[in-house]
Every structure is written in structure tokens, then in C-alpha cells.
Amino acid sequence: MAAPKKGRRPTGAQGRPGRALAIILIAMVALTAGMFLTKQTTPRLGIDLAGGTSITLKAKSEPGKPDAINETNMTTAVGIIERRVNGLGVSEAEVQTQGRDHIIVNIPKGTNEKQAREQVGTTAQLYFRPVLAFADGAPAAPEGTPSPSTSSSGAPKAEGSGKPGAPASPSSSATSQGRVLSEALKAPAATATPSPSASESKKADDNKAPAPTPAPSGVEAAAADLQAKFAALDCTNEAQRAAAGKGAKPEDATLACGKRGNTWGKWILGPAGVAGTDVKDAKGVIDSQRGQWIVTMQFTDKGADKFAKITGELATKQMPQNQFAIVLDGEVVSDPSVSQALTGGNAEISGGFTQQSAQDLGNMLSYGALPLSFSEDSVTTVTAALGGEQLKAGLIAGAIGLILVVIYLLVYYRGLAFIAIVSLLVSAILTYSIMALLGKGIGFALNLPAVCGAIVAIGITADSFIVYFERIRDEIRDGRTLRPAVERAWPRARRTILVSDFVSFLAAAVLFIVTVGKVQGFAFTLGLTTVLDVVVVFLFTKPVMTLMARTKFFSSGHPWSGLDPKRLGAKPPLRRSRRTGSGSVTAPVDAKEA
Question: Best-predicted range by mean pLDDT among 123-132, 358-367, 519-528?
């Protein structure tokens, strides 16, 4: 038989267990330190455990669209509202339909609960409309008193458009506003009246009939009516704010209220040029070059064409007609100005944003457009009393299950149970710390199904230990000593553990994708703990087993080690014979295991 090549590492090499243990120890210390540094030492709880707010929304029929309230539109609205609320970091919010025309929104108690409730209460359509006129929110002063200023200097601007235009002069005259409104409402161009001839003048003098005053056209009458309503509108009054522009169609000019800083303003807005459904993505980000918060927007292909058209038209006008208003549920949330057409499907809005206002506007633009209008039917506070009792019962059940697993390990595996219990403790520390940090990082909230997923994970993790321990025992039964048995058993056990955990993770991923609400919490926790099972087995259980195999207690096969060859029914050691010169056979010699 050829001798093995020198310098070649034998199969089943023990590796460096200390390095793997150092990695997982550093990870545990880092995660624990992260909890204390972020002051997030406990996981966030879902509405069933911590309580929160339940909002009932009722869909309203749109004028001329009696069939708009249908299953498709309701399902679309549920998805958008859920993304909107969760986009604020209020994860585990439940959004579901009830009956034909109601949506229930359950918001867990948390730091963003109030903000989420405010945005859920403004759930209808989002439009980009050209600005025709702007004034302070109070009604116009009586005739003979100074008019309020319509300065638009506080408006943000759409980037790519250069600097915002000069502020508008004090309030435009009624004639100027009427002309702008008439043009926006597509009034026919005025035709010049020909000068009468001398004979015609004489006939007119003879008849002495006064020239009739031309009746205003329908468009001019509508413009005058809108102008009068604009002058009388008081946006500091909550009832008038709610009524402003109510029922206006996208193709109609309308009135709207909104806030600029801490004061209310009012607008006359033209027909919608771009709908919220044309926005593909939007978010508030920090501009590193200028050190200020901006809102970036990305449009769909059709939306990009519409946005390029409306900005191209506005760029040729003066303030405030070179602005477009972003209108959510009839309220102006921003009115940036432009001075050139914004093409390419991307734009950014800058000008006086804080981090919160930029992120709020980005969230509205991303998730604000719904196929239906909704009214807030009821708002109730949910207590956590029932959920607390269920959590207590679940934790008791989990504790009983854990105790039974520990008893089984102690009885059947004896000393090996110590390694399994410490591994479970390491897995619990990693799971808890990661859940606590995810509450701060992505808004993960722990609910009852998620607790169930964590309890199920105890069995998954224990199963991995059992697979490895049984492989070691098989090697000992074949007559090998402990140290080579530990190393030879690992490749076979590793394959089985990876396949088993892959199946569990795949099931959790599919469940997370195809379900909604609380079931996703179960799937997420199950997937997380399955990944951590692989980490713990590879970086902790296997290295610790390698180190324990070097101790006398385990290597000598102590009866309480769980690896006693006699109790396992081990075969005699593999032997080989050596012939003497006379051909007789000497005493057997134990073969060395690789």
C-alpha cells in the first residue's frame, strides 16, 4: 500500500474551533451592545400584545362612477394603505376588508402611531395640478382695505428648473385673475368688434337704442364664480378647508387649502396634469452636496411624458403660474416652481424641507394614490388585555415544551445535553437581540403568531443537534474513538442539517410571500430562527463538540457523557495483523483512524 503524501491534511481535520467561537462571541457582544446603544432593549410588540388604534374606513361612491366600489379596487386600496402605513415604520399594521365597502386598519401602539393615523385619515387621490392663483388662507379683505399678499417666495422648487422665480407682486387684480382662469378653463379667444360705418352710426343715433351688453360665456361665468369663491374662502376654518374643492373632478379647476410653514394658504388650481398613479417611486433623501433634505421622484413611462408636458408649459409663466401643486385629498402638500421642462422621468423637489417633512412627502407620493375615496367611519382604541393573556398562555406552553426537550436530552444524551442546552441559549440570545434591533431598524413588531414561530424554532434547533449527535454515535458504534468520530460525523450531519433547514426556510419564505397580516409574523420569525440555527450549529455547536472531545470526560467514554461505547454497542476496534519471519501471526494491533 502506498504511503500517504506528506503535508496533505487528513480527511476530517479538526480545523480551528477557537476562531469560530470568537466570531459568534463577537456577534453576540455587538448585537447586545447595539440594543443598549439604541435603547431598544425589548422587541416592539404588535397590536394584539401592546394595544393600539383600530380605524374603520368606508369607501365613497364617486360621482358618475357607481361601480367603482368593487372587489378589485378594494383589494388595491388595501395594498396601498398597508404599504403607506408600513412605509412609516409601523410594521405589523393590519389592513383588511370588511364587507363590501369597509377597510379595517389596525395600527400597533408605537412611536409613529399618531403619524400613521393622520396619513390613514387622508387616503384618497393624489394629483399634480398647475397653480393659477395663490393667497393667504384668510378671506379677502372688504373692498377699500389693503389686499393680502400673494407672495410665493416660500414655495419649494423642482430641481432641474434653476432658481425659483421672483415672488409675485401683491394680489393680482380681479381682471388679471379672471383672464388666467378663463384661459385655464379654455375660454374662446375674444374677437375684435369692427368699427361701424358713418351710415350705420347715423342709423344707430336715429334709433337711439343702447348697445346691448354682451352676456358672459359659460366659461367666463364659471371663472367668475370660482374667483368669488376663492376670495371668500377661509382656509383657517376647518369646515371650509374640508369643503374646498370637494367633489372636483381631475379635469376641473378647483380650490384647495394647504400649509406653508405654520400658516394656511389657499390656491386656485387648474385641471390635473399628472395623477398619483403615474409616480413610480419617491423618497426623502439628504443631498450630500448641499446638505439639505430633498424629495426625489421617479415616474412611470406615461407619467414621465405627462410631467414633461406640464413642466414645459409652466416654465414659460411667471409666479405663481409657474408652480404645480401636489394635492392629496384636496389639500396642497407642496407647490414647487419650475423654469424648464423636466424630462427623463426623474425629478427632485427642494426648498426648506426637514427630514420628517421630506420623508412624509416622499411617502405620500409613493403610496398616496388610491382608486377610491374613503371617509373615516370610526376610530377605537384596542387594549392589550386579551393579547397579554394569550401571550402568557403561549409562553407557558413554550416553557413546558422547552423543559420537556431538556429532560429528553438529559435522559437520552446525558453529557451531550450540556452542549445542546448552551447552544439553545446562544440561539435565544441571538434571536432576542436581533428582534429587538429589527423593531428599531425596520419596524418589526412581535405578535402572537411570531411568538409561535419562535417556539416552533426550538424544535428545529434541537433537531439539528440530535442529527449531529446521532452521527457521532454511529461512528463510535463502528469502532472509532471520539475525536475522529466527531470529525468524520460532521460532513454527513452537515448535509442533513442544511437540507432540513433549507426546506424549513423555503416554507417560511413562501408563507411570507403568499400571506398577509399576522401570518407573515409567524413566517418571518420562522425564517429568521432557521437561519440562526445554521449559524449556531456551524459556529458554536460543532466547535464546542470538537473542544469537548479533547477532554477526558468525553474522550474516555464516561457513562454520563452520553458517548459510552459499551452502552452504544460499539464494535471491536478495526484491527490488522503483522506476520513474523516464520509466518506465525502476532497479537493484533489497533489500526489508527485518520
Answer: 519-528
Spatial CA neighbour of 278 closest among 310, 246, 322: 310
Work out the mean pLDDT of the chain and round it to a whole number. 74
Closest CA to 130 of 269, 331, 258: 269
pLDDT tens per residue across span 325-364: 888 777 888 888 887 888 888 888 877 778 877 877 777 7
294 forms bridges with which residues in the sheet?
285, 350
- Whether 59 and 102 have beta carbons less than 8 Å apart is answered as yes
Q: Is the pLDDT of residue 502 over 90?
A: yes
Q: Quick check: 346 and 296 in contact, CB under 8 A?
A: yes
3-state helix, strand, coil in the chain (%, to 5): 45, 20, 35
Contacts with 202 (C-beta within 8 Å, 6 or more apart), sequence order: none
How far apart, in whole angstroms, are the C-alpha atoms of residue 561 and residue 552?
A: 10
- The secondary structure of residue 353, as a DSSP letter, is E
Nearest to 17 by CA among 489, 486, 552: 486
Residue tagged 399594521 (cell numbers): 93
Max Cα separation, the chain?
A: 161
Helix H, strand E, coil C: the string for 98-150 is ECCCEEEEEEECCCCHHHHHHHHCCCCCEEEEEEEEEEECCCCCCCCCCCCCC
C-alpha cell at 272: 390635473
Residue 113 exposure: Cα atoms within 13 Å on the Cβ side: 20
pLDDT digits (tens, 9 = 90+) for 556-583: 878 888 787 787 776 665 444 445 444 4
**pLDDT band of 18, cuts 50, 70, 90:** confident
Q: Per residue in 185-212, pLDDT tens?
A: 554 333 333 444 444 444 444 555 445 4
Tell me the Ramachandran region of residue 144: left when phi exceeds 0, alpha when psi lies from -120 to 50, beta otherwise.
left
